[in-house]
């Protein structure tokens, strides 16, 4: 990563923006938080954080006029993008949450956990859980297989193309906990809450 590279953390009214920025700042990686389309278009890398409701998040992106800029940077210019939690879910074609269309970057749907053993497995899925690394990736450099990351979610991506799956995690059912497709990366867990292993993942992304 060159010194002039800029990581943009997209502010669309949801997400752990400052937690992610603090990690980048401590790692001496230049980043800004912005909700402006012009800043999206000038960024070298994009982080799309998020917690909350899928339908509301997509409405916010549209209201801020960010969808076109994000599509330009990610799908045409092929700049690296990292979606975190809801930010990854927004990359899907559609979500059950709010019955809303997503950005459509991935052949996937966002679906709610359908748990049988509700005594043992609560929804939302909150806390530490292991990730199984399914393919080689620069995002996972220095991250050991079955490392634990922090999760907080009720929905997950149901992937239609298994080659896009980067991590899997088991919570009664086995679900996709990270994806990689060309320049598009996403994690269902929260690296900004996952201590050293999360810092490693975020700095790996900044170096891509």
Care to describe what's here?
- The protein is 25% helix and 31% strand.
- The protein has 6 helices and 14 strands.
- The termini are close together.
- The chain has one domain: Class I glutamine amidotransferase (GATase) domain (Rossmann fold, 3-Layer(aba) Sandwich).
- The strands form 3 sheets. An 8-stranded mixed beta sheet has the order 2-1-3-4-14-13-12-9.
Structural class of the secondary structure composition?
Answer: alpha/beta
CATH architecture: 3-Layer(aba) Sandwich
Largest beta sheet: strand ordering? 2-1-3-4-14-13-12-9
The CATH H-level superfamily is: Class I glutamine amidotransferase (GATase) domain
Number of helices: 6
**Strand segment count:** 14
Task: State Rg.
Answer: 16 Å
Q: Overall 3D geometry?
A: globular
Strand content: 25-35%
Can you describe this structure in just a few lines?
The protein has a single domain (7-207), classed as Class I glutamine amidotransferase (GATase) domain (Rossmann fold, 3-Layer(aba) Sandwich). 25% of the residues lie in helices and 31% in strands.
What are the SSEs and their pairings?
Elements: E1 7-10, H1 17-26, E2 31-34, H2 37-42, E3 45-48, H3 54-63, H4 67-76, E4 81-84, H5 86-89, E5 94-95, E6 100-101, E7 108-112, E8 125-130, E9 132-133, E10 148-153, E11 155-159, E12 165-171, E13 173-181, E14 184-187, H6 195-207
Parallel strand pairs: 1-2, 1-3, 3-4, 4-14, 5-7
Antiparallel strand pairs: 5-6, 7-11, 8-10, 9-12, 12-13, 13-14
